[in-house]
């Protein structure tokens, strides 16, 4: 999917909501466990319920990998079920040296046809480049994350450069790919961080995972993160998909998604630069 | 596997060789392609041929993941075929926030019973800790890698600390786990790097992937990297498993593994501190 297509979706749905399909067999409603593929049944119902409000879906691959071969089947079926015009993110946080990264890229972009994959930056350019060789596919590089451990390395100051490691990652990686193929993961816990990231990458889309269960204000994210083509995908996982664990789980997920979408619609009017 | 068990294996086989099972369907001998599971058949023959000379096997997960569900089956069968007293490494380079890392840990340590998994450090302590909660299982944290891209971030100097990012990773992470549960990946291209790593982590095992096809001298690695319980696992992948792509591939792999083992036996006599 191109950046233009993505922005068109955002304008048409008045939403920059990404629904995180972190589907845990231990957390889905009990009545689904009788089905042949409970994970897929759950995802299918969530997608049906939220597709008018979400522009992107993001399965976290760990949840599927933990189930072995059957998990990969559920993932594949889920991916095929997501409507064509919706952006898909393989939240895999992969990264390895060149020829191995090429294999990961083929797994997610060719075998599975995801639009994008999250990638870890530690191994540098030749671990990221193989993902950038696919037309209209995206790398979403870890920039700054919202967990406590982000302070261990991401916020360290770099000697002789007036910036932190995460800023260096965001600036350096722009030599490898354009804003038509590269986004950044930015944990949305602090407005000042978003301002720094926007300064370092004015044009790029940011995937913000920290709204909802992980904290972070949607208004702050929108105010400090939005650019002239929105430039934001804001993810909510547990806050939507586990709104209820009864028979009404899809209905409740729809309400939660709609509530976020309505708030986003307001911010698009207010902050779209 | 405990550190004591691993050192006993090293002493008994006079080897610290790890064989990298980077098994690529496009590179294995053509006569195997008629078999029901060519990847497993290849691995089985390689394991049979090298098990007297290797103390560890390291499948790179990308090669299996690229094949989808069938790849995971080949991987599972391979893992079960590796002799009990041999150390197994899931070269997955995973890393995510807490509850998601727990899922990856369960996938590799419980569902698949690997002894260890390689983990990327960028997200910090809470991305690594869940892997350290399993008894007699190991995290092998990316320290410094041998690829060109390692210079993008790993070698950056940290402000107000007289060290590079990779040294900071190696020092900081020792607060999270002991040398009985934590190793480091150290790309073996330069002796001075190994000296720095050994200074930062005198007791830990190092997994050295850079000997053979990736360059790096086994003597230098041994001289500068060995400690009083060896503390080294030196990997060779292509140099062993693709020694021949004819019917004699296993025999040639055996010769290549034996050659490395004999050299290692010499260095164990010479450098074991």
UniProtKB/TrEMBL annotation, chains A, B:
Residues 16-253 form the Orotidine 5'-phosphate decarboxylase domain. Transmembrane segments: none annotated. The keyword Lyase applies. It catalyses: orotidine 5'-phosphate + H(+) = UMP + CO2. Pfam families: OMPdecase. The keyword Chloroplast does not apply. Keywords: Decarboxylase, Lyase, Pyrimidine biosynthesis. It comes from the Bacteria. InterPro entries: Aldolase_TIM, OMPdecase_type-2, OMPdeCOase_dom, RibuloseP-bd_barrel. Its EC number is 4.1.1.23. Pathway: Pyrimidine metabolism; UMP biosynthesis via de novo pathway; UMP from orotate: step 2/2. One of its GO terms (biological process) is 'de novo' pyrimidine nucleobase biosynthetic process. CDD domains: OMP_decarboxylase_like. Belongs to the OMP decarboxylase family. Type 2 subfamily. PANTHER family: OROTIDINE 5'-PHOSPHATE DECARBOXYLASE. This is Orotidine-5'-phosphate decarboxylase.
């Amino acid at each position: 999917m191109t950046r233009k297509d993505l922005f068109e979706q955002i304008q048409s749905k008045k939403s920059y909501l990404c629904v995180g399909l972190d589907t845990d067999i231990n957390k889905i409603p009990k009545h689904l466990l009788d089905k042949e593929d409970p994970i897929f049944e759950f995802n299918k119902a969530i997608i049906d319920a939220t597709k008018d409000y979400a522009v992107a879906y993001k399965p976290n691959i760990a949840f599927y990998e933990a189930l072995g071969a059957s998990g990969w089947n559920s993932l594949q079926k889920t991916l095929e079920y997501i409507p064509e015009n919706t952006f898909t993110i393989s939240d895999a946080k992969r990264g390895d040296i060149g020829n191995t990264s090429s294999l990961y890229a083929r797994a997610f972009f060719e075998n599975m046809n995801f639009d994008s994959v999250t990638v870890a930056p530690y191994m540098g350019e030749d671990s990221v480049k193989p993902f950038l060789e696919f037309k209209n596919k995206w790398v979403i590089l870890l920039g700054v994350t919202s967990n406590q451990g982000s302070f261990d390395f991401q916020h360290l100051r770099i000697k002789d450069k007036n910036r932190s490691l995460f800023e260096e990652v965001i600036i350096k990686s722009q030599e490898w790919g354009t804003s038509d193929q590269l986004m950044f993961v930015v944990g949305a816990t602090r407005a000042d961080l978003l301002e720094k990231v926007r300064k370092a990458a004015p044009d790029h889309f940011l995937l913000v995972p920290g709204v909802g269960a992980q904290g972070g204000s949607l208004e702050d994210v929108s105010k400090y993160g939005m650019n002239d083509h929105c430039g934001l995908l804001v993810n909510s996982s547990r806050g939507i998909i586990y709104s209820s664990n009864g028979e009404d789980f899809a209905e409740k997920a729809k309400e939660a998604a709609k509530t976020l979408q309505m708030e986003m619609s307001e911010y698009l009017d207010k902050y779209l630069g």
